[in-house]
Amino acid sequence: MSKPESVDLPPCARRVDLEAPSGPLAALEAVPQRTAFATALLVPGFTGSKEDFLALLEPFADAGVRVVSIDQRGQCDSAGLANPAGYRAAGPSREDGENGEGYGSDDYGSSVFASDIRALVRALADDGTGPVHLLGHSFGGHTVREALLGARTAGPLPLASVTLLDSGPAAVIGKSSVERLELLRALKDTLTLQQMHELAPVDVHPDPQVRAFLLRRWLANDLNSLAEMARRLLAEPDHTGELRALLDAWNLPCLVMSGIDEDVWSADLLRRMAERLGAGFVLIPGAGHSPNAQQPGLVAKALLEFWLG
Q1: Taking CA 137 as the corner, what is the angle to CA 304 and CA 25, rounded to the nearest 5 degrees?
Q2: Strands (E), the chain
């Protein structure tokens, strides 16, 4: 979970709703004072939200980039699906392992998460605010990859670049992360989000405003969405080879970023993934799994150099 240092919205930003195939998605939009030269679409990870990127909004807007940071379906202010079965329309193309449920490779790319991202990319590319740069953090990176691979038969998405931020090539490997994901899945039908919070508080932070936000965000999540994200993070196969082929075919620049103390996968694993993708790699010092919140200045600088390059 990314924990912002502040939840104050900068003057350049506003809360908006975006139309997506699954329904309205909550977002923060930051608009430069001058004409934007590009748009950045930022996708948060498991238990995250649009606020994970709050500290990046002003630096990007000041540099002339319009920023759209979203809540994925069922996260925070984006309402969950009325039918929980909709989250299981597609998923990892290897068997789940727990109950034998799995999905074939033909289904990969058709999930509600991926379909929403493809629609947003096309809408943002059509509105005249410059080329679209797509970034996914953690599970958001898996959503981004699935959105790309799901577009293979329809043709290239209108993107200028893609960035994977602390998002590994396959299932989560960090022991503590795996245990938390398995626990959430095991307790989903037994405990409420409030009861889970009482067992393991999610609002640990010195700032009372941030504490209040962290608890509100946790309780606003759709538990079915969280459980499906957890399942995917535990079962995700390695699609790096397929993604490399797509990046090459689309001539799409890619960047992989990692905090030096990344512990959900590992910085070395992410470096090797970047090499396999033929992508650039940036290591962020003084950060773990959420450099966007822990070292936003360094993240903004590296991304602007990548986008401008």
Answers
A1: 100
A2: 13-18, 25-30, 38-43, 65-70, 132-137, 161-165, 254-259, 280-284
Q: CA-based diameter of the chain, in Å?
A: 54
Q: Other CB atoms closer than 10 Å to residue 264's CB: what's the count?
A: 25
CA dihedral 232, 46, 17, 28 (to 10 degrees): -140
pTM confidence score? 0.94
Report in angstroms the alpha-carbon separations of 150 from 73, 116, 123, 144, 239: 18, 11, 17, 10, 12
Residue 204 phi, psi (nearest 5): -75, 115
d(CA 16, CA 28): 6
Place of tokens 């899945």: 185
Question: Alpha helix locations (H) across 26-172?
Answer: 54-62, 112-126, 139-149
Interval 112-153: pLDDT, tens = 999 999 999 999 999 878 899 999 999 999 999 999 999 988
Place of tokens 């679409």: 41
Mean pLDDT score of the chain, rounded to an integer? 92
157 three-state secondary structure = coil
- Between CA 35 and CA 64 the distance in angstroms is 7
CB proximity list for 259: less than 8 A, separation 6 or greater: 166, 267, 283, 284, 286, 287, 288, 289, 290, 291, 294, 295
Q: Mean of the pLDDT values across residues 31-58?
A: 96
Task: Tell me the residue type at 231.
Answer: R
* Alpha helices (runs of H) in 68-173, residue ranges in sequence order: 112-126, 139-149
Residues forming a β-bridge with 137: 165
Residue with tokens 């096309």: 122
